[in-house]
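Thread: Newbie trying to understand structure tokens

Hi all, I'm a second-year student working on a class project, and my supervisor (Dr. K.) asked me to get a predicted structure for one chain before our next meeting. I've only ever worked with sequences, so writing a 3D structure as a token string is new to me. If someone could post the tokens and maybe explain what I'm looking at, I'd be very grateful. Here's the chain:
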Amino acid sequence: MNGADLIDNARRNANFPQPTEADLKRAISAAYYAMFTALAESCADTLVGQSPNARNAREWVLTFRALQHGYARQQFERREVNLYSPAIVSFARTFTTTQAMRHEADYNPVSQFTQRQANDIIDQAEYAIDQFMAASEDERRLFAAYVLMRNRL
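---
Reply by user tm_fold:
Sure, no problem. This is what the structure looks like when written as tokens:
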């Protein structure tokens, strides 16, 4: 499973003929998890490696699993995130917005979304992922350290 698979899953859920509220909420959740997975993969790829051997190594899985939802959001809300390229900053902003929408979809039983809202969230997540992945590997490696490692400054 990767970010692109989750975007595809989100689109299927959002675009069922006459999608139910559950379909739309699952679509929004999948859009957020597409962003989370893309970031986790980028962290592991840039810090451990992206060859098939590296991706099968225990270290790659540990690095992938090191990403924490709450800590990532906290780092993205810090001023220091603005030191990165516009693509990275945009990803961070979209990540926090999409995470908030996922919380609304997953944890608020009375929340309601339209098909258009779900598709807009999916489009924004996909665009942010594409822009993020277009950033240089060196910048994404620095960003991996920023988002994974506790700041003691």
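A couple of things are worth pointing out once you decode it. Residues 21-47 form the longest helix (27 residues). The chain has one domain: 3-148. Feel free to ask follow-ups in this thread.
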